[in-house]
Amino acid sequence: MNNVDLVEKKDLFKVAEEFQNILGYEKRYFMILGLEGSGVKDFSQCLMDQAVKKPWEVDAFTMNEEVMKNISLEVVREG
Fold first, then answer.
1. For residue 20, what are the contacts with CB-CB under 8 A and spacing of at least 6?
2. 3: closest CA among 40, 58, 28, 41?
């Protein structure tokens, strides 16, 4: 949950309880203050812990047709 500083704590805990009652929802949630960065480190670490560790399929410095296409699309979008 982001922007938790905008909600009163009593209301925030009610929302957190509602999340826990959703079928199939993991019982772990993160209260994040985006502007302050509070909670971001824990959230990032959780994602890293769940990530599948395997070798990269393509070298980071390899240019292929798809990479060039994506760069071109970004340039056009930004322009």
1. 27, 29
2. 40
User: For residue 50, what are its two tokens?
Assistant: 């769940």
Q: Is 33 exposed, middle or buried (0-12, 13-18, 19+ CB in 10 A)?
A: middle
Residue 52, domain extent: 4-78
pTM: predicted TM-score of the whole model, two decimal places:
0.50
Domain count for the chain: 1
CA pair distance 2, 32, nearest whole angstrom: 5
Report pLDDT digits (tens) over 25-49. Answer: 666 778 788 778 888 899 899 899 9
Q: Is 44 helix (H, G, I), strand (E, B) or coil?
A: helix
pLDDT in tens, 54-68: 888 877 788 888 888
Q: How many CB atoms lie within 10 A of CB 44?
A: 11
